[in-house]
Amino acid sequence: MKILLSKRVLNIPKSSTLQITAKAKELKRMGFDVINFAAGEPDFKTPKEVINEINRAIEEGYIYYAPSKGYKELREEICKKYKELYNVDINPEEVIITPGAKQAIFEAISSIINPGDKVLIPSPCWVSYEPMVKLCDGRVEFVRTIEEEGFKIDIEDLRKKANGAKLLIINYPNNPTGSSYGYDELKEIVDICLENNLYILSDEIYDRITFEKHVTMLSFKDIRDRLIVVNGFSKTYSMTGFRLGYAIANEKIIDEMSKVQEHTVSCATSFIQIAAITALRKCEYFVRMMNYEYKRRMDYISRRLSEIGISFVKPKGTFYIFPKFNYNGFKLANILIEKYHVATIPGEAFGIGGENHLRLSITLPIEKIEEGIQRIEKCLKEMNY
Ligand SMILES: Cc1ncc(COP(=O)(O)O)c(C=O)c1O
Known about the structure:
Strand order of the largest sheet: 2-10-9-8-7-3-4
Largest sheet: 7 strands, mixed
CATH superfamily of the largest domain: Type I PLP-dependent aspartate aminotransferase-like (Major domain)
CATH class of the largest domain: Alpha Beta
Bound molecules: pyridoxal-5'-phosphate
């Protein structure tokens, strides 16, 4: 029978993590006490200043289409924030506001990739990069990371594969591993990209959830013409449902991305953009409070995992930890949810290098983390692990 649907879309797999999260929801609905280590979003309430500002912005009439690139005032505020945090100079014309960082990533890939172009992605990696490249008819080649060195990119593997590639997608602090990079390590990566004329898409959405100083890729002036940095409000200000992100790149790339935006989603929601200005101006206290709490939780879970003899790389940022087991991640995650009502994400979902791992999100209070760890320990004992 002739297939009438797009082969491009038919080739995209459904999220392999959906099954576990659906199971967790079902168990919760049935009244079970589920410990949820599977979430990909903060557990804090959005700052009240942001909510109040949304109401005010709606009252004031920010209920119509916004300019496709986003309100200039918000773009200017983002530039100010980058100056304040990282001492980098950005012009508002080098910023586009998008409905979520995800859309910014898709627009960047659409604007750079021609059919057949090779895209390098260090793995394990966030689940959406590969499908997005495929939707643009690009070709993904995964670059090894070295777990023993904190899941850092294997520089020799990158050097080998860079020849003939068009784009490197890097994400740090990293989902799912929590790994990150210092200035010298990033410089080595940037130099390889410069030597091979690669573009870099740097997904820095966890830049404010860090236990070490974050170095933005924008610090490297030589690559600025070939660089897109993506960030957003989802993780930093606990605004996942508001769908607001942005990209920073040279004007030519931003103009191309803007065309994709105009013809697909038009613009990011107008009143949310206005509220985001308040987030940037008034909610630094909130970012610090969340970061402090994540650090406390991360120290706690790291200590507890060590005590029960589970190996892991200590995260440098994000709210994820990625312990390793001598057991298939899918199978273990299934046992944990079915028998112990603990939801986790199997490492295999994040591609090569993720095998036999679980991703645990620490987006729950310490008492719940403790309860979850006790159940994991019980599970491993009963499996004679
Ligand atoms: C690495 C990474 N990039 C991008 C995103 C997308 O974020 P947003 O909610 O802004 O679309 C996520 C969300 O989970 C993520 O983990």
